[in-house]
Amino acid sequence: MRSRENYATDAVFECLAESARRAVIEVLCDRTTATLDELADAVAEQGDTRGGPADRLVPELHHRHLPKLADAGLVEYDAEGGVVEATERTRAADVVAQSVEQCSLLSPDVDATGGEPVHLD
């Protein structure tokens, strides 16, 4: 049987698996508070434009990413006021994300798609 802590840990890693959510965490480590529009602009500036330009990121952040981050306790999100705030867990999540990124940089021969390792001979 899985403990409550394991589910919480899984929720954090699930949040960090998405690049837009990692960008949100990174922005909030610098600012601690941002409006939804400011956050969309900052995420778009970081180059995470999978959702399109900043104005197209707003609904994606509002409906998908911010609720998931809030459920995991990584941000506080006032959906009515459109304000996002860092929590005490935001910085820790950023450290985890940066650590994982460093691991991927140290292992360039691993296929990022989850397939077999790619050997660069």
Task: Explain what the structure shows.
This protein is mostly helical and 121 residues long. The chain has a single domain (4-96), classed as Winged helix-like DNA-binding domain superfamily/Winged helix DNA-binding domain (Arc Repressor Mutant, subunit A, Orthogonal Bundle). 59% of the residues lie in helices and 9% in strands. The protein has a three-stranded antiparallel β-sheet with strand order 1-3-2. A hairpin with a 4-residue loop joins β2 and β3.
Keywords:
121 residues, mainly alpha, Arc Repressor Mutant, subunit A, 5 helices, 59% helix
Write the layout of secondary structure elements.
Blueprint: H1 4-16, H2 19-31, E1 33-35, H3 36-45, H4 54-71, E2 75-78, E3 83-86, H5 90-106
Antiparallel strand pairs: 1-3, 2-3
As a percent range, the share of strand residues is: 5-15%
Count of DSSP strands: 3
CATH homology superfamily name: Winged helix-like DNA-binding domain superfamily/Winged helix DNA-binding domain
Distance between the termini: 44 Å
Largest beta-sheet characterization:
3 strands, antiparallel
Identify the strand order in the major beta sheet.
1-3-2
User: How many structurally independent domains?
Assistant: 1
Determine the CATH topology. Arc Repressor Mutant, subunit A
**CATH classification, class level:** Mainly Alpha
**What percent of the residues sit in helical stretches (DSSP H or I)?**
55-70%
Give the assembly state of these chains.
Answer: single chain
Calculate Rg over CA atoms.
Answer: 16 Å
Kindly name the structural category. Answer: mainly alpha
Mean pLDDT: 83
Shape: globular
Order of helices and strands: HHEHHEEH
Weakly predicted, low-confidence segments: none
